[in-house]
């Protein structure tokens, strides 16, 4: 690891990197332009912090960095047989952080554990700011917002109204809060974190998006059982009881949560008909996965290419459901199906290996927070395509790499 003396020598660079990262988090929620500018600045500063030769060596000596880069390379390779080259180039542009950011973090040793703790503390409060912004809009017309949840509506959110990614970001902020509480003993920041957690948890239920709720409940449940097995302390049972009571209390006191459950029940009744229903949320997701699966069966060796997944999926819809609304013709709603349709079974397997490789990083594989962060992304991709949108790609690449650098630094100090 880089010595503390060396870090002090480059004090201005450390401060600049921290400022840029914090600005990136703010840009993620509130300004796409700010996010883009700060990402360019981060790339440049990271190469100033570490010699390119050292970065290249660190990159190729780590299967963790390589596994993330392979998510980009799979897309690049399919360009050889994608007929829609413009669409393929668009996908390549979206996926660029998956290969650029691993190079940025390779050999990166500019931060101490304390630096990362402060950055992640600010990250939590930027997410809280996003929550408060969304709540402000909700308070402008609560009745309309609540009624919208009976028709697949959702609250106004940051991230360009990407409520799925925002719900995942909130769940990740809760995991981050829990880890900071564990490492910040007798620290004044703890009180602020204790305040932030209930705000995030309550809002997650107010937003009532299944991706964030699934990640929150499953990660908390895993943590509770892990804590019980490790410490044998029965106080973890209190968390388990709270976990059971939370959805009950949310149903009673949060109309958006209650209405979302009513809508899910209604949508499920449509799903049981096994036919296309205009505007059906789960029904359209299921049909999209069927479209991806049939594309995988038709093109099992190399797929159709990332540039042609949209055309292939639309063709399936036109054949099987010719009267389908254009807005209901969504891409296969699973990253596994996307990669299978685009690159065949090799793409399906490579994506699986890339996602699982993070759980076997030698110095982190026993770290519960690291497991939960990676499990959160993995779960979200089962029935969503976060890696096909810019916000999702940035969240995946930057947050996982940042956690990797943070926890590696924590372990070495």
Largest sheet, in brief, is: none
Helical stretch tally: 20
Mean pLDDT: 92
Spatial gap, N to C terminus: 9 Å
Structural class: mainly alpha
- Low-pLDDT residue intervals, each spanning 5 or more residues: 1-5
Strand content: under 5%
Shape: globular
Question: What is the number of E strands?
Answer: 0
Rg over CA atoms, rounded to whole Å, is 22 Å
Task: Give the helix level as a range of percent.
Answer: over 70%
Instruction: Sketch the topology as an H/E string, one letter per element.
Output: HHHHHHHHHHHHHHHHHHHH
Quaternary state of the chains: single chain
Q: Would you kindly provide a brief summary of this structure?
A:
Helices cover 76% and strands 0% of the residues.
Account of the 3D structure:
- The chain has 413 residues and is mainly alpha-helical.
- 76% of the residues lie in helices and 0% in strands.
- It is built from 20 helices and no strands.
- The chain has helices spanning 4-9, 11-30, 32-49, 52-60, 63-77, 85-95, 97-105, 113-140, 142-148, 158-161, 163-183, 189-207, 210-231, 236-253, 255-271, 281-298, 309-320, 335-357, 368-380, 390-412.
- Helix 5 packs antiparallel against helix 18, helix 8 (113-140) crosses helix 12 and helix 11 packs antiparallel against helix 12.
- The chain starts with a helix and ends with a helix.
- The model is unreliable at 1-5 (pLDDT under 50).
């Amino acid at each position: 690891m880089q010595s503390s003396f060396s870090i002090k020598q480059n004090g201005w660079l450390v401060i600049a990197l921290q400022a840029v990262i914090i600005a990136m988090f703010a840009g993620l929620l509130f300004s796409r332009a700010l996010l883009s500018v700060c990402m360019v600045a981060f790339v440049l500063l990271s190469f100033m912090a570490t010699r390119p030769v050292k970065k290249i060596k660190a990159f190729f000596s780590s299967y963790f960095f390589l596994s993330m880069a392979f998510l980009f390379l799979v897309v690049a390779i399919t360009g050889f047989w994608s007929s829609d080259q413009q669409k393929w180039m668009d996908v390549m542009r979206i996926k660029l952080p998956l290969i650029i950011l691993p190079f940025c973090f390779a050999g990166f040793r500019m931060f101490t554990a304390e630096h990362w703790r402060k950055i992640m503390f600010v990250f939590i409060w930027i997410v809280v700011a996003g929550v408060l912004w969304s709540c402000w809009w909700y308070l402008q017309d609560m009745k309309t917002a609540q009624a919208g949840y009976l028709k697949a509506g959702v609250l106004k959110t940051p991230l360009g109204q990407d409520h799925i990614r925002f719900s995942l970001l909130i769940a990740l902020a809760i995991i981050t809060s829990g880890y900071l509480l564990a490492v910040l003993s007798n620290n004044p920041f703890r009180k602020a974190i204790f305040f932030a957690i209930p705000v995030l948890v309550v809002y997650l239920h107010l937003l009532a998006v299944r991706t964030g709720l699934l990640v929150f409940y499953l990660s908390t449940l895993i943590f509770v059982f892990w804590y019980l097995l490790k410490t044998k302390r029965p106080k973890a049972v209190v968390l388990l009881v709270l976990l059971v009571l939370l959805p009950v209390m949310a149903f009673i006191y949060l109309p958006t949560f209650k209405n979302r459950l009513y809508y899910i029940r209604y949508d499920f009744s449509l799903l049981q008909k096994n036919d296309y229903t205009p505007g059906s949320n789960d029904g359209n997701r299921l049909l999209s996965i069927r479209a991806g699966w049939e594309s995988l069966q038709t093109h099992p060796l190399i797929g159709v290419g990332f540039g042609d997944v949209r055309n292939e999926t639309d063709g399936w819809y036109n054949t099987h459901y010719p009267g389908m609304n254009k807005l209901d013709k969504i891409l296969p709603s699973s990253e596994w199906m996307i990669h299978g349709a685009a690159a065949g079974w090799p793409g399906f397997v490579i994506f699986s290996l890339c996602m699982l490789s993070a759980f076997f990083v030698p110095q982190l594989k026993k770290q519960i927070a690291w497991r939960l962060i990676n499990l959160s992304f993995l779960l979200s991709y089962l029935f969503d395509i976060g890696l096909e949108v810019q916000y999702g790609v940035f969240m995946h690449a930057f947050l996982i790499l940042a956690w990797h650098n943070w926890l590696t630094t924590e372990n070495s100090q």
